[in-house]
Specification:
Helices cover 41% and strands 17% of the residues. The protein is of the alpha/beta class and 319 residues long. It folds into 2 domains: 240 residues, 3-Layer(aba) Sandwich (Rossmann fold), CATH 3.40.50; 58 residues, no CATH class. The chain is globular.
Length: 319
């Protein structure tokens, strides 16, 4: 075994020990709610056993019907990625708050329809949670967004004072480009051509009537206004305007968002540090690039999150 392999093994063993000996039985996990004009938002606040956390982290979930724990409705099981991350942070005396996005999970009760939802709705909700955290403890607040939640976190940081931003598997390009790249690998030529056409219209602020039924999950008419509002944001441009420290975390086996996205954000910012976690995929698990293993990991709660991810966040908060 080489020196680099021994070092990697040591890092992994330390991280596993963190998860095993974590004082979670003593940590306080509280269900919390905030009332808004559009309905109640629900989340979970984990307070370390010390009750004097050295930092507070707001965890923001990724795209689609993804709940506070990192689980996506429609998949056959749970991966619990954000839940495990919150628990690992608690073992390091770091409090965290994670929440169900509006229209998801226990935040589903709302007067808002899908056609009225906008990307800024999620940003404003996250701002409300950040304000909630300000009232909990006298400790620095960090924003940690996963995937689509990364951009939400960057925008929150641009509108309030936080100690730092942690971007986990965050796209570094407008979302329309990411969607096109992902669908290009999956769609037959005729549907890919339709996808390119629709994305072009949405990029220019125009919705499309009667998209092909095969593309309804992506481009149904009721979701198009949300996509238009999402596509107008360029994560690298938002990051360039921030004056707080940023940690950019990416997995080497992530099949959804690649390291090049982090490199684009890194180039735009004077305050960012890029860390690639070897073997980590999009749901923060150590999984090989093999597609069968990748798909299984999205629904497998028995897999722990990558320990190196936790250690990188710990080191960033110490700094």
């Amino acid at each position: 075994m080489t020196d680099s392999e021994l070092k990697y093994l040591a890092i992994g063993l330390v991280a596993v020990l963190i998860l095993i000996v974590s004082p979670l039985a003593e940590a306080d996990s509280r269900d919390v709610e905030i009332d808004t004009d559009l309905g109640t938002l629900a989340g979970t606040l984990i307070v370390p056993a010390s009750d004097k956390p050295r930092a507070l982290v707001l965890l923001i979930a990724g795209s689609g019907p993804t709940d506070r724990d990192g689980n996506t409705r429609g998949l056959p099981g749970n991966n619990n990625s954000l839940k495990y991350l919150a628990e690992a942070l608690a073992s390091l005396n770091i409090a965290s708050l994670r929440f169900d996005k509006r229209m998801i999970g226990d935040s589903a009760s709302t007067s808002l329809s899908e056609s009225d939802l906008r990307f800024d709705t999620y940003v404003n909700d996250a701002l409300l949670w950040e304000q909630f955290l300000e009232q909990q403890f006298n400790a620095p607040i960090y924003i940690a967004g996963h995937s689509e939640g990364s951009l939400i976190g960057l925008l929150v940081a641009s509108r309030t004072d936080v100690a730092g931003v942690i971007s986990i598997a965050g796209p570094g390009r407008p979302a329309s480009q990411v969607i096109l790249e992902q669908t290009r690998k999956q769609l037959p030529p005729d549907l890919l051509a339709e996808t390119e056409k629709i994305l072009g219209e949405l990029d220019n602020g125009r919705t499309v009537d009667s998209p092909p039924p095969a593309l309804n999950a992506l481009f149904r008419e009721s979701v198009q206004p949300y996509l238009v509002s999402w596509f107008q944001h360029d994560p690298a441009e938002v990051a360039a305007g921030l004056n707080v420290p940023m940690l950019l975390l990416y997995g080497s086996t992530d099949i959804q968002v690649g390291v090049t996205d982090g490199e684009r954000i890194l180039e735009s910012s004077k305050n960012a540090t890029l860390k690639v976690v070897d073997g980590m995929n999009h749901v923060l698990k150590r999984v090989s690039p093999d597609m069968k293993g990748q798909i299984a990991s999205y629904s497998d709660p028995s897999l722990p999150i990558a320990g190196e991810l936790v250690l990188a966040i710990d080191a960033f908060i110490i700094d």
